[in-house]
Known about the structure:
Strand order of the largest sheet: 1-2
Mean pLDDT: 78
CATH topology of the largest domain: Protocatechuate 3,4-Dioxygenase, subunit A
Number of strands: 6
CATH class of the largest domain: Mainly Beta
Radius of gyration: 20 Å
Oligomer: single chain
Order of helices and strands: EEHHEEEE
Largest sheet: 2 strands, antiparallel
Structural class: mainly beta
CATH architecture of the largest domain: Sandwich
Helix content: under 10%
Shape: extended
Strand content: 15-25%
Amino acid sequence: MTLPNEFIQHGEFVQRAEFLQRDRGQHPPAFTPDYKTTVLRSPRLPLLSLQNSLSEVTGPVFRPDELGPLDHDLILNYAQGGEPIGERTIVHGRVLDENGRGVPGALIEVWQANAGGRYRHRNDTYLAPIDPNFGGCGRMMGLRGILCSLVR
């Protein structure tokens, strides 16, 4: 496959080589006084455009073989002899670039609290118990930017 100069090819994955600035004419202004929350969270100074570094343009690059067979499945990827407690949900989505095209090879990490509202993290001191069959995290990669995950 021959690609224009603005693309870089890594094996089967293709990435854009430069960041495209958002077309501000397509989006509402960040500061809209009638919408009161924009008063505090809109930028006070004009945005600066910085040159992209080589690492921002070329990486990181992930391969599907870096993921385990159950990394995308939060129900089964941590099961220790049983199923986790809680309702099952299917989460799906797409990773799009600034032009609305699927981003191939995008790695997404998902974190989810267990049915009691507790994360499996040493800093989470919530009173709910840890579910021994629910790890609460997963990773997935969409070859065409399309992702799907099973979560508790």
